[in-house]
Design brief:
The chain has helices spanning 7-36, 41-68. It contains two helices and no strands. With 69 residues, the chain is an all-alpha fold.
Length: 69
Amino acid sequence: MTLAFSGDAWTQLIVALSIFVPVVITIAISIVFLRGAKNDPDEQRWRRLEEQRREADAAGRDAATDDRA
């Protein structure tokens, strides 16, 4: 393994890890917290209201179609 042959290789490895490890950890933490947003009460309320609005729109369209027939 050529990595152990020079100090420059070790320096490059340490620099690369110091850049990529925090990025990977940040992405993992973001995923955990953003998935937790699904359980947010406000988010659930917004979803429920959106679903009710869609149902009301669908019912309104059905009623309009029945009137024409």
